Amino acid sequence: MIKERRKITELVNEFYHNRIPVDKVREVIMQLGSEGDLEEIENVMKKHWREEKRTGLLEDKEYKLLLDGIHHRINVLEEEKSARTTVRMARILMKVAAVLFIPLFITTVFLLNNRTGNKVPSAIAYNNIYTPMAARTRFLLPDSTLVWLNSGSSLRFPLAFTGKTREVFLQGEGYFDVAENHKKPFIIHTKKLDVTALGTSLDVMAYADDRIVSATLVHGKIKVEKRGTGRYVYLEPSMQAVMDTVTGKMKVYEVKTKYYTSWKEGTLIFRHEPMETVAHKLERWFNCTIYIKDDKLRKYKYTGTIEMETLREVLDLIKITTPMKYKYDKDTREVWLEPI
Fold first, then answer.
1. Which pTM does this prediction carry?
2. For the domain with range 267-339, which CATH number is right: 3.40.50.300, 3.30.70.2740, 3.55.50.30, 3.30.450.40?
3. 315 vs 166: CA distance, rounded Å
4. Digit-coded pLDDT (tens) for 180-217
5. Selecting from 3.40.350.10, 2.60.40.10, 2.60.120.1440, 2.60.40.420, what CATH number does the domain 141-259 have?
6. How far is CA 282 from CA 197, 307, 320, in A?
7. 273: which strand partners?
């Protein structure tokens, strides 16, 4: 076991310091994905990233660009390989890339109180985890709450939950399996909604560039409050609160929750959704840009399920049941949809 861990450590260090020949990078990542202990890889990477944070050599925006570049390369590989090889390669690359680079976003903030002349920390360290486009991430919070983050999402949370509440800050979409603690409500803050839970499983979607934000309850009970208004609703299982950020109106619906939570299992389910909405989700899912040239096509309602297909396979699938054709530039990852 010690020999195996030493081998893993050496491989990760070589990877980090860019000492692996270009033609061997894929082989090393495959080896880490098939043989590596992900916990051991994460421990080694945390040491490197913390050192980078202390020296100030890298900025968060550089990390995000680096991650997006990795996942862009993964998508290119998908176009080049056969379906069976692609799925295996993509899964391994996603898994290892996430473990190698998530520790980048650990940030510590201290506020000092100088009123008494003593420099005493009055706020604690926060983590900020970002999931790039074309990726999904799963991790545990300090209270054992399990979180999945969807593409292009981030979550800010303290290293330890103190006080009477457990509060996190979400941008994008996250699924939370909240650890039960009736003495400390779990609060998810977004730009427009605050969602309070005790022991609950729920999905919250609040992307900055989306007009609609929502909270979908799988089990338990939650309180969904419009920020700054004092107005709120309570949700029972299989209920969804949807708010229009432009009009400020919020409505509650009964839904099939799997349509809104399947993404964490690597599946997108569309049921009578406008093509414009479908395209927007695919952009995040595949880290691409999709242009729709026709208003009627934008409003066309699409139904379908997407799992481990490549972007081109998905476009071909949609084309079968939708009156459209497409052009795809794999170098720029731009797609143009046109009616037929």
1. 0.69
2. 3.55.50.30
3. 42
4. 998 999 999 999 999 999 889 999 999 999 999 999 99
5. 2.60.120.1440
6. 30, 12, 17
7. 302
